[in-house]
Write a structure and sequence with these properties.
The complex is a heterodimer of chains A (310) and B (469). By secondary structure, chain A is an all-alpha fold. The two termini of chain A are 14 Å apart. In chain A, 46% of the residues are buried. Chain B has 3 domains: 290 residues, no CATH class; 95 residues, Rossmann fold (3-Layer(aba) Sandwich), CATH 3.40.50.11290; 63 residues, Dna Ligase, domain 1. In chain B, helix 9 links the parallel strand 9 and strand 10. With 469 residues, chain B is an alpha+beta fold. In chain B, strands 1-21-20-17-16 form a 5-stranded mixed β-sheet. In chain B, helix 3 packs across helix 11. Classes of the chains: A mainly alpha (310), B alpha+beta (469). At the A-B interface, helix 1, helix 5 and helix 6 of A face helix 8, strand 5 and strand 7 of B.
Chain lengths: 310, 469
């Protein structure tokens, strides 16, 4: 397969994953701002931090919903805005057109310019509907890939890209919200924590899944375990690492050779297997999350190197 | 009255359109117009779009699609088939000749200046024989119909004629939306075109090729107006669609960059113009080129389809001599006629053109796509005078042709079936054999009376049926 094609597939999935994650962050932001005392905490700032865009918003000035919707949803100059992500995923797809099924292409092509014409006021007013629209687009894309794409190396590159982006989003969200999970910050079980935790879980579509696994109670240990180490929850870091290992191993099979990325993913799986939530809190949640982010960044770089991306 | 391909002058329907007439009656005009919107939605969703350079607006717009098919009978097609293949053979023989001994010039049939001083003639190709002696592997011949049994060639396209994806997609959409029309097997299929193209390309693999030839389609990139077609053809042939940055030259071969490392390429179906393919040989400022490509080509390491320099055969000044080429190289009489053409480079013909500009169609010799032409009967006095000035300043750059009584084909109007002028471009494949899929692209001028069918000027397309016996 052409390296450029592999790269396009890898990034197409990343951008689609990012668009969905950003849409979920906006939902989280909305939920958090309606909690008691929200204005003290500058909740929208945590949203832009989780999206990796805090640098755009000067410290000391509160970040507003209007700022965030404008920047994360509509801004054509923000490379991570939902609008940019959908556009770039489509451009990737166009350039790797021959590797996509008709359904995949149609899922990316349909309504690709919808956000171009949105005024901020309208977007804010229709935010829940727009967020649903984005999520539906991404899910249709994923479903089309799942149901129709040949299981060749191209599919593995696509899924590896998706898994890497998803792991990073979960890690970034934890990085922003880790203080909520620190037991000593406030009385456990207090109202605020409860809502903050559920908001985090909501942002990752994990509220119900969490209850299925841990029952009705929220504890920082269990939430951390769920988001970092649970191997059944598709947005946990451990699950994404498993998925990456699976895809990268298949790619090693197709290519009959291994690269640095294969060592790194093994190392990452090793780290995940050696941890439990007690250990994470002993090491420091923040430090563990930082390590995860560093490792996934390195992994992305090494995948590009191993397969001769541009 | 121009010849109407569906209706006789007395209003009765020509036999080959019987099925279409019944279908129109069954569905009704308003019913068909509703289905038209459906077809457009399908085109847009699939992403079959066409960008027009320099016009701004929607960068990916649709070519209007007309639902009513254009029909040729089996008998008509037999003539077209022979005539098209004959022309494709003669054009390739001409190219081989002018890049070698130039017999046709020595015989005094074509003046040397028209060839050797032509910017489409590439001195770099002299003395080189491409694999299979094929220069133009896909010959698109633009044909107009001017009477029940009269077909004339408007121009030849020997470089990289585009539009074949519309031939395939138009049929695809028609069979998807109106399967009942195709159930009886009346219409000859066209869907083996990609397989035939691949066969033709593999037949001209270079000497350096070992085993099954590796074929690629080379596109300038996804912003090119014909990108959809490039990816579509690569997809249907099951070959890689490469961009220039995916290729490089090393040790006398061309390689593509894959996730496994470099892989040798044998045949490049390139959709990039000659001057941009290799900055070392041609335009040094080309960002699209693959440095060293031309050297590998000349030394037999790779085949380029079409060959660089093939454009000399479709030059408008050379066009005039194609009937002579057919007689000279093939010893046959031309089956398809040329349109009468006056060359402004000849003083007496130029005088005639300047005097009759109001009734002629004048064109730039090197123009294409319907740009830079003057349609005398539709032009204002000022436009004619301005154009005449340009001809006087540079007569060698212009030719003129009579305004043709182009046939009209049935087209869906808001309230009835109307007649609109159309042309026809079949795609003749040349490898070791000559192949022609029964069909082609019918382009139609959607404005009443208009003669300009180019998609860049608001023309539309429609499915073309060749009936089986």
């Amino acid at each position: 397969m052409l390296s450029r094609t592999a790269e396009n597939l890898f990034w197409m999935a990343r951008y689609m994953e990012r668009a969905e994650a950003t849409a979920r962050l906006l939902t989280m932001g909305q939920r958090m701002t309606i909690l008691p005392g929200a204005h003290h905490r500058d909740e929208w700032r945590s949203v832009v931090r989780a999206a990796g865009c805090e640098g755009q918003f000067p410290a000391g000035t509160p970040v507003t919903e209007s700022d965030v919707v404008s920047y994360l949803m509509l801004d054509p100059d923000n490379p991570s805005s939902i609008r940019s992500c959908l556009l770039k995923a489509r451009a990737n797809a166009k350039s790797a057109r021959t590797m996509l099924t008709q359904d995949m292409w149609e899922s990316l092509n349909e309504g690709w310019r919808k956000l171009d014409s949105y005024e901020l006021a309208d977007a804010r007013q229709q935010l829940p509907a727009l967020i649903d629209w984005v999520k539906t687009r991404v899910m249709t894309f994923r479903g089309a890939a799942d149901a129709g794409q040949l299981r060749n190396a191209g599919h593995d590159f696509l899924r590896a890209g998706g898994a890497l982006e998803r792991a990073q989003m979960t890690l970034r969200l934890l990085d922003v919200k880790y203080y909520v999970l620190l037991p000593e910050t406030e009385v456990i079980g207090g109202n605020r924590d409860h809502y903050q935790w559920t908001s985090v879980l909501y942002a990752l579509s994990g509220v119900r899944a969490y209850h299925h696994v841990y029952g009705g109670t929220y504890t920082p240990w269990q939430i951390t375990d769920f988001l970092m180490l649970n191997r059944l929850f598709p947005r946990s870091v451990a699950f994404c690492a498993d998925q990456l290992a699976y895809r990268l191993n298949r790619l090693a099979g197709w290519h009959d050779s291994r690269g640095a990325c294969h060592d790194t993913i093994q190392e990452m799986i090793g780290v995940v297997e050696g941890l439990d939530s007690g250990e994470i809190f002993r090491q420091g949640l923040h430090e563990t999350v930082q390590m995860g982010l560093k490792m996934t960044n390195r992994l992305g770089f090494e995948i590009a190197q191993t397969y001769y991306f541009g | 009255m121009p010849f109407h391909e569906m209706f006789e002058p007395d209003g009765s329907v020509r036999a080959c359109y019987d099925e279409v007439q019944k279908w129109v009656e069954r569905t009704g005009i308003s019913g068909l117009n509703r289905r038209m919107e459906e077809a457009e939605a399908i085109f847009r969703r699939i992403g079959i779009t066409f960008a027009v350079y320099g016009e701004g607006g929607d960068p990916e717009r649709l070519i209007p699609f007309d639902l009513l098919p254009r029909i040729f009978t089996a008998q008509e097609w037999r003539v077209l088939d022979r005539g098209i293949k004959q022309r494709a053979r003669a054009l390739n023989a001409f190219l081989l000749d002018v890049y070698h001994r130039g017999e046709i010039v020595k015989a005094g049939i074509i003046p040397p200046d028209i060839i050797y001083r032509n910017s489409a003639y590439l001195a770099e190709m002299v003395g080189f024989t491409p694999p299979g002696k094929v220069y133009s592997h896909i010959v698109g011949i633009d044909i107009v119909r001017t009477g029940p049994a009269r077909f004339e060639v408007l121009e030849d396209n020997c470089r990289t004629p585009s539009g074949v994806s519309y031939m395939l997609e138009n049929r695809e959409i028609m069979t998807r939306m109106f399967p009942e029309l195709f159930g009886q097997g009346l219409v000859a299929p066209v869907d083996d075109y990609p397989a035939e193209l691949l066969k033709s390309l593999k037949e001209v693999a270079p000497p350096a090729c070992k085993g099954d030839p590796v074929v690629v389609v080379l596109t300038p990139g996804s912003l090119n107006s014909a990108y959809y077609e490039h990816s579509f053809l690569a997809d249907l042939m099951g070959v890689e669609l490469v961009e220039p940055a995916d290729l490089f030259v090393d040790e006398g071969r061309v390689w593509m960059k894959t996730t496994l490392g470099p892989k040798a390429v044998d045949v490049i179906y390139r959709r990039i113009d000659d001057e941009y393919i290799d900055p070392l040989t041609f335009r040094p400022d080309s960002l699209l080129g693959i440095p060293g490509l031309f050297h590998v080509y000349r030394s037999g390491g790779v085949t380029l389809a079409s060959a660089p320099g093939a454009g000399i055969a479709d030059d408008k000044a050379v066009y005039i001599y194609v009937p002579e080429m057919i007689r000279f190289y093939l010893g046959e009489q031309p089956i398809l006629d040329n349109i009468q053409t006056w060359q402004c480079s000849k003083p007496d013909e130029c005088a005639y053109v300047l005097e009759h500009l109001h009734e002629l169609v004048a064109k730039e010799v090197h123009g294409s796509g319907g740009y830079g032409m003057l349609i005398g009967p539709k032009a204002s006095t000022v436009e004619i005078e301005t154009y005449a000035e340009r001809i006087r300043a540079n007569p060698g750059e212009f030719i003129a042709q009579p305004t043709l009584d182009l046939s009209t084909v049935p087209t869906l109007g808001p309230a009835s079936v109307v007649g609109r002028h159309a042309d026809f471009r079949p795609y003749c494949l040349v490898g070791k054999q000559i192949r022609l899929v029964p069909g082609g692209l019918t382009r139609v001028a959607l404005t009443e009376g208009s003669l300009v069918v180019n998609s860049s000027q608001g023309g539309g397309v429609k499915d073309t049926w060749v009936l089986q016996d």
